[in-house]
Amino acid sequence: MRSIGVAVLLWSALGAVSLADNLDKHGVFTPKKIALGSVPSMDGQSYSGGFTLSAGEPLATLDYDYEVAGLPYFVASSVSNGPVEIEVKYAEQFPALSLNYSDGPSQFTTSIANSRRVETHRFTGDEIGATVTSMLSQPGQRWQSLRLLTGDSITFQTVGLQASVEVIDDLTNLPGKFSSSNAKYDEIWTLGVRAVTAACLDAGSQVPSWSSSEENGTFVPGTRPGISYRTWNLTDYVLNFESQIIRGGAGYTIAYDLTGNRDGVQIHLASEYPNDTTFSNINTTLFPANTVTLAYGYDFANATSMTSYILGQYDVPFNVKENVWYPVEIRVNSTAGNIVFSIDGQQVFDIILTEMGFTDEQLSFYGYASRGEGAIGFGGWQDQASYVRNVTATSLSDSSEVLYSNPMTDESVVVPEFGGQSNAYGVCLDGAKRDRYIWLGDFYHTTRIMGVANSKPEQIAGTWEFLFEYQADYVYGVSATAFALTSGVANETQIKLIVDGLEGLRQGPGYLDTSDTDNTTHISPNTNGFLLDALLQHGYTDQAVFLFDNLWDAMISAAWEIVDSQLNVTITAPVGTDGTFEVDQPSSSTGVYELHLEGTEAATSFVVQL
């Protein structure tokens, strides 16, 4: 191992570079109201700039009045009994400011926006008058709180966000207008405009946070791991790399299902937590010093509808130094579900996933359960940063067979591979809180208000360009058919061909999502609903009537809008009775399923393929 002493300087340096990149383009968001006290408060006064945190009023609640996004910045004008540490929280909804992780961790932000909604800053006399920025930008938020952790007091000259989305304080300046006799309708339209301006991004507006060099490999900030698309199919392998902790710890991901964007095995290495770099609010319960923590799922903490499981904590047999390179080896036997972790040549754990005390159902996500196969990635927890370099994966059975290799020194290669590059197109995302997640369905109805509100055709066109780059030419489906029809890109001949092709997707009461969807899969009224609209626009009434008459009656879940193409039936009838069971069966030649039954007092069960 080898020690260096330049890493800590990068924390503020990278933030300063990012601040300059976007400032001229978008400007800044500043709070509209502020409340000082000891707990978060919605009862704020007009924000005019300077404010002080002290023992009597240790917490400031900032209200931006509407959804904003960008890189947080702070300018302190005085510090008393420093160093002063400030814990900052960000949230879309006010109640989240009272939660440990605010409204995070967010699982749809990687590498650019911060998936952690809590961060810490340290101020000394050296920072007075300087613009201190966060390492990572924050996705959509309205609320922000600053809490005094250490020191006597601190006075801020100003705080805010270097905007990563368009700054529009006055909606009357927009090219689109809406006015009606109903004030509530006017407010609904305004809300839609706000949602669009926060969720739709200009090209190049999201600034990368990863950087690479020949000496230190790649700098990785403490957020949800960036995942390598080149390693999507790794199985039965030995992963080797060098890792250096700059502050707090480093995170490593294996077994990630890249195609489904789900699950993964999370590994966290904690340093010895030296006083000069360790914040006072560090979570030593979740990550004790000099340990490796193992988890299954998206993260080490639960998020909405996504549960993560801590599988174990293991002591490292030495003090893990910061600013020191350590060789790391992870041996993965996907067949057996066996994972062995070693650092600096010393084994820390040797486990089998199926023997960790959790059920297969728990260690799975929507039917998928990895036992080690899948992609790798690098990240970290709140306030952490690290370096990684010289990453290789070789076959578990043949060390001479190299499955993957990346020295992590070429930024132009590393950043795009791990999903951390700036957005090449203007795009509309699935809400302002996500930095790279695009839903066709949400975009479909968003385009209507984009056109009449902010009038940015480049964001509409950019979203299409982005989506077209990822289309497969060997599969067709309901959504693609619907969007081809509604967008106007298909001529009459093409429209007839793709509508005729729907017969290949017909299953029971509706249409399967794609031509490679298993025919036992639930059918979605969501995607079929978009198709219905498209069919009606072009006069294909037979297909539309088929959906009207069959699909929505078969819905079994309002929450996820799914339809089962199979009907499971159990009938119990008294002895001496008989009758005919009858149900619509669109897939049959007669359109009706009939079965004559005689009562036996025993349960008779059967399955009808609708």
Automatic annotation (TrEMBL):
- InterPro entries registered for this protein in UniProt: 6-hairpin_glycosidase_sf, 6hp_glycosidase-like_sf
GO biological process annotations for this chain's record?
carbohydrate metabolic process
Q: Which residues form the signal peptide?
A: 1-20
Protein origin, superkingdom: Eukaryota
Entry keyword set: Signal
Protein's UniProt name? Concanavalin A-like lectin/glucanase domain
- Organism, as annotated: Phytophthora cactorum
